[in-house]
Amino acid sequence: MELYTRCVVCNKLDEDGGHLFCKCKYVKHLWQELNLEHVKLQLDERTSAKDMLQMIWELEEMECILMVTLADVALVVGKEPN
Hints:
With 82 residues, the protein is mainly α.
């Protein structure tokens, strides 16, 4: 099975879902535009996926909806072959 490790957004090599969701320079811009940088900083402090998800579900309703949407977009885009 061939794995695509190039970011489909910024074209950087050897990237993973963490890059696509948090580190990609274009996705960082989305965090800013959605006014969710404070949430991203909190997520950066989490050490496990379970902790991240728990934190997301505890957000205010609108922030939670935006986070789930952002995650969904990152997953869909991340599955597209280069």
